[in-house]
Queue: 2 jobs
Job 1
Amino acid sequence: MVKAHIAPSILACDFTQLGSQCQHAHSSGADWLHLDVMDGHFVPNISLGFPVIQSLRNLIPKGSGVFFDCHMMVSNPEQWVEDLGKIKVDQFTFHYESTKDPLALIELIKKNGMKVGVALKPKTSAEVVDALGDLVDMVLVMTVEPGFGGQSFMPEMMPKVEYIRNKFNHLNLQVDGGVGLGTIDAAADAGANVIVAGTAIFNAEDQEKVINVLKQKVND
Ligand code: DX5
Ligand code: ZN
C-alpha cells in the first residue's frame, strides 16, 4: 500500500514568517511542503515564484528530508523546469490543461532531475491519466478550482480519485483544496495518499495533532 504524505500548502502561511512557519510544519510531522506557483494567467491569482522557492530550499536543504512539491499553476510550465531542477526541487507538478505536449514535458522534468506530477482541474476527466499513469510519479486531483486557498472541498471529485487508484495501485495520488479534518475521510476512503492542506494546517492551534490525524486516516 502507498504511504501517507502530508503536504502543507504554504499559500496559507503568513508570508512575513514563511521560513519559520515551514520549519514548524516540518517539525510537527509534515514530510512534504506544497509550493503553489500561480502566474495570474493560468489561474486568476498571483502567488510566489522562483526566488521564494530558492530561498526556502536554501533554508531547508534537500538533505533535511523535506520533499519540495511544486504545484505549477502556470501557462507554459516548460519555461520553469530547468530553473527549478537546478535548485533541487523534488517534484514538478504541471497541469494537464497547461501544455500541448504532456509526454515531452514529462521527459523534460525527468531529465532535469525531478519527479513528475500531473494535475487535473475539476472539469478534466480522470481518463486522461490512462495514458500517463505509468510515466509519472504522482497524479493530483484538484478538489477545488485552482487559484485560491480556503475554498470548499468538492466531494464529487472522489469518483475520479477512485478511478485512478483502481487503475494505478502504486501511484502517489494527491488531493488538493479544502482538505482538513472534516473531509479527510472521503479523500482517504477514495484512495488518496498525499494530502495537501493549507488552512487546515496553518490555521490550526495544534498543527502536530492535525497532521497526525490526517496521516492516520490515510494509513488506517
Ligand atoms: C489552490 C491551491 C491549494 C490551496 C489549498 O489552488 O492549489 O494548494 O492552497 O489550500 P486549502 O487547503 O486552504 O484549500
Ligand atoms: Zn496546490
Job 2
Amino acid sequence: MQPFLDECRAVVGDAHVLTDPQAMAGFLTDWTGRWTGHAEAVIRPRTTDEVAAVMRICSSGDVDVCVQGGNTGLVGGSVPPSAAATGRPAVLLSTTRMTDIDDIDTVGRCVGVQAGATIDAIDTHAARSGLMFPIDLASRESATAGGVVATNAGGTRMIRHGNTRAQVLGIEAVLADGRLLRRWSSLVKDNVGYDVPGLLAGSEGTLAVITRVLFALASPPPATTVTVVAIDHVETALDLIGLLRSAGLTIEAAEIMTQAGVDLVHEHGQRRPVSTSAPFYALIEVSGVGEVESEMIDVLERADGIVDAVLEPGPARALWAARENHTEAISRSTTTPVVKLDVSFPLRALPEAFGELSAIEGLVGHPCRAILFGHVGDGNIHVNLLDVPPERTEEITARVFAVVAVNGGSISAEHGIGRAKTAWTHLGRSEVDRTTMRAIKTTLDPQGLLNPGVLFG
Ligand code: FAD
Ligand code: MLT
Ligand code: ZN
C-alpha cells in the first residue's frame, strides 16, 4: 500500500479514501463510457483545508491528481489516464462531499458555494430568494459548481446570460503545491490586474483545484413562452430569432434538433414536440413584459418557412424534454461509445456548415450514424457519432474538424478539450497562444501533477 494514502486517510478520514475497485469503478469511467482510468484511490475531502493538505501530500509524493465533480463531462477530462499512460501513481480527488451553499446576498445578487454543489441545488437555493442561477444544462442534477467553472460550460441559457466564466465573481482554489489562492469579492468593478478567476474558468482541472466559487445570480424572466417550430432550413431558425428580437422579445434559449434526433428520443419514450415531420425543429423560449404569447404568435404568422408550430407558456417542460433527452437517448442507442464533437460557427456560416456536417454520415458510411443538435442561437452544434468503430474515431473526428476549419468555427464550443481533442488544438489556437497556455500551466503546476493528459495531451 502506498504510504501517501495513509497520510491522506489521516486528513480526510478512512471512509473517504476509497481503494476498493468496486467502490472506485463509477468514478473511473466517464459519462460516455469512452474513457476508463486508473487511480490508487478516490479521495473525498470535505473542506478547502483538507484539499490543501491532500495536495501537499501529493505534491511531496509526486502523485498525479485528477479532479472530478459530477463526472458529467463529455471529453474525458474527469477521469485519470489509464495505468499505462503515466509512470507516476495517481489519485482521483472527488468534490462530491463539498456541497455547502452560503446564504444568498440578495443585494449583491450573488452566492458563494463549495465546488461540489450541484447546479440544481444552487438554482433551487437561489429561487427561494426570487433569483436564479444563470447557467442551466440537462446534467443539472449532477454537474457541479467546480465542474461548470472548470469547463466554462455554456448550456441552454448562454444566449441570454453568457457562459459560466461570465458568472464568476470570485474564486477560491488550491494550487498544485497546496497553496490557497483566494479572490473573493462581490465587487462588479474591480480591475486590479489579471482576471485569475476567469483564467481558471475553462482550465479543466489542469491549473488548480477549485474549492469555492462566488457566482453572480440573475432575476428570473417575467412571463415566458416556448415554441417548437418545424422548419425546412436552418436559416429559418436564425431569421425567427431576429424577428422575435425585433418585436422586442428577449431570447431566453434557442435550440435546434433534426428529424433523426427527434425520432430517436421518441423511440426512447418522449412525445414528439410537433406532429408534422420536417428536417429541423427549433425550440425557442422568449420572455417579455407584455402579452408574450400573442406577440410570439404574431411573429410566427409573419415569419417565412415555418411548416408547423406549437406554443406553450414556460417552463414548458414537455417541449423541453424532447431536446434535453437527446444526450441520454444517444448514449443508449449506440453500439460503441458515442463520439461527441461540440463545434461552433459564426452565425452567418452556420446553415452552410450544418449542411456539410449532415453529409458526414454519408461520407463515413455504414455503420456510423450522426445525430446533430445544439444551441442554434450560439452557433453551437453537437455532432454525435454513433456506432463508430474505435479505430475510425480519429479519421472521422478529423473530417468534422475540417468542416470547422473551413467555416471559421471552433473545435470546442462548450465541452472543453479534455482527453478527446488534444491533437487538434492547433486548429483553434496559434503556436504563440498554445505556448502561452503551457507557460501558465508550468508556472502554476511545475510538476505537471494536475490532470496530466488533459488539454495539452
Ligand atoms: P466533471 O465531469 O466532474 O469534470 C469536468 C472537468 O472539470 C474535468 O476536467 C475535471 O477535472 C474538471 N473539474 C471538475 N471539478 C473541478 C474542480 N473543483 N476544480 C478543478 N477542476 C475541476 N455542457 C455544456 O457546456 N452545456 C450543456 O448544455 C451540457 N449539457 C449536458 C447534458 C448532459 C445530459 C450531460 C451528461 C452533460 C452535459 N454537459 C453540458 C457536459 C457537462 O455537464 C459539463 O461539462 C459540466 O460542466 C461538467 O460538470 P461536472 O461537475 O460533472 O464536471
Ligand atoms: C447539450 O446541449 O445537451 C449538451 O451539451 C450535451 C451533449 O452535447 O450531449
Ligand atoms: Zn450543449
